[in-house]
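Write out this protein's structure.
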Amino acid sequence: MTLCATCTRLKHNKAKAMEAGDYRLAADLELKIRHHPDGHKMPPSGARWGDRVNEPTPYNGPQPGEEAYDAATGHVGILQAICDVKELTFDHQLPGPLVAFLRPEKGGQEWMTDSKNVKFPEEVRPHPNSVDDLP
């Protein structure tokens, strides 16, 4: 990975300050380098700085603490969390960028599923007055 233009400029100015004996300015520039946003690294070739590359679709389903339907298993549970796969320290073996953790309403073993499988229960339950109930 290459340094971004801002970091390159800051490093150059720090070196000039060190040569001139201005150690206070050099220290200030070092702090700016260390606290530069985005980890002060450019993505590898291809993407441009600021481009949105493979950004996941925002999650708009049930929120933690709400009842949720898991389309993969057909079970309804209470949503515990939605996590980015980068936050997980274990092999989740799920395809999407977000993982949902659910548990049965009255307690029991928690399970996980891809966030794309999580729906509001109302979306999948038939309406009580639906035409399908007629003889």
